[in-house]
What we know:
The complex is a heterodimer. Chain A is of the alpha/beta class. Chain A is built from five helices and five strands, in the order βαβαβαβαβα. Chain A has one domain (5-121): Response regulator (Rossmann fold, 3-Layer(aba) Sandwich). Chain A is 44% helix and 20% strand. The two termini of chain A are 12 Å apart. By secondary structure, chain B is of the alpha+beta class. In chain B, strands 1, 2, 3, 4, 5, 6 and 7 form a seven-stranded antiparallel β-sheet that branches. The radius of gyration of chain B is 17 Å and the shape is globular. Chain B has one domain: 3-Layer(aba) Sandwich (Chemotaxis protein chec), CATH 3.40.1550.10. Chain B starts with a helix and ends with a strand. The relative contact order of chain B is 0.23. Chain B is built from five helices and eight strands. Chain B is 32% helix and 26% strand. Classes of the chains: A alpha/beta, B alpha+beta. The A-B interface holds A 11-15, 57-59, 85-91, 93, 97, 101-110, 113-114, 117, 121 and B 32-33, 83, 85, 90-91, 94-95, 97-98, 101-102, 104-106, 108-109, 112, 117, 120-123, 171, 173-182.
Amino acid sequence: MAGxxxxxxxxxxxxxxxxxxxxxxxxxxxxxxxDGEEGHVAFKAxxxxxxxxxxxxxxxxxxxxxxxxxxxxxxxxxxxxxVMTTEVDPALIERAKRAGAIGWLIKPVKLVHLVAAVSxxxx
Amino acid sequence: xxxxxxxxxxxxxxxSSIDILVQNATVQVFQSYGVATAPIxxxxxxxxxxxxxxxxxxxxxxxxxxxxxxxLLVPLPVLELTRxxxxxxxxxxxxxxxLTNQLMGRIKGRLLRFHVxxxxxxxSAAKAQYLIGVGRPSSHPAIxxxxxxxxxxxxxxxxxxxESRLVYSGIDLASEGDILLF
Lengths: 123, 182
């Protein structure tokens, strides 16, 4: 479905799978990536992404560094990004906000709330 | 000189701020997945032990010049209570790793209220027997145990921040499950 493709980047396969299943049930097409580097490749390969959900603490490339990379690249900068993490550090939240993220979700997030947030943001 | 028995008993009955914080965080992590756990009174210098089916997650942290790590030990039957879809060993391992990540995240969040900003590593997981001896030989971990319907959960903290470094700030922080839209 055009305009409804969402990328989930998280190093937990369990988290990716449950988010993917919830969003797929809500009519989204979901792509998964297991770390920041894989997420970056997925971003470049899917120019029609409507939104991305990034974890923070991941191997190889963390979510905030991926966010910086995405926002510095004109080809990916416009994709809205939500950060979903266990981190509650105000400094990290502020960093994500300044980098251009549109929201910060603190794990564990109820899937119904996640789907509602994504649905509201992807119109 | 050996301490009188009553003094040892009094020490084990007194919970520090870090004890309370770690115990609350652990209880809440399992509670958020529908599993009730209750802290068992901490015994100083207790040894960590595990069963054959126990899985463990570990995550490193640092603060100032101090480096430590947390170990979460969960018997498979307890882990299976938290999710119904742990159909193979890889899924169970991935899930205990994520629970470790979420537990450390909660502890970090609570310590932020005490001006302690831990830097976290990336968690990993394995069968408990392979992780139980990891750490500096000189390091005496603080061991926390929790009773649940299907077995005991353990948390070991190696080289946690010293209690004397804690200064309560009262800072207002977001909580687990919050969605902040900018």
